[in-house]
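Class, carefully examine what follows:
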Amino acid sequence: MTLRHFLISGCLLIAPLLAANALAQGQPDPELREVLRAAASDTQSFADRFHAEVWLTDMSRRLERQVKDPQKRVEMLKLVHLEASRAELPPELILAVIDTESNFDPYAISVAGAIGLMQIMPFWLEEIGRPKDNLLHVDTNLRYGCTILKFYLDKEKGDLRRALGRYNGSLGRRTYPNKVIDKLSKKWFQG
């Protein structure tokens, strides 16, 4: 077992404790619980092959420094596009969020216990009755993250800064939303 896997295993053991503490501090939004429950079962795919090839080629070049393996990079991009499209979000926005949240490390775990690419709090698994979902799985993490961000964007009536603030737990502060929007406009913009 490598040191990285050992540390991840240790973090996974304390993550439920951190999640329980986060849950105790404030009840999760019951509306968001229902939206996540529905999203955990929904699937779609790329509708247009030409668009997929152009988009994947373009975004793959931009992601090359962070995800070296071309196969893993394209698989991740396909899943980002799939889940963003399912949630009716621009995939480039999701790439900017991931870039900011985890720097594209699917095994990232924050000090607060948030897990994976989009840094999802594990208490959601229990909240929606899916405790066996694995937030370290890229597809699962993206499904949850895109659903949560879309919920907040709708709740904020399209105000991206406020939605990003809610997503990050920093509503009213501009630092996190500005980081995501900066990455979106400078690196992940749609060409």
Q: What stands out?
A: The radius of gyration is 16 Å. The longest helix spans residues 3-25.
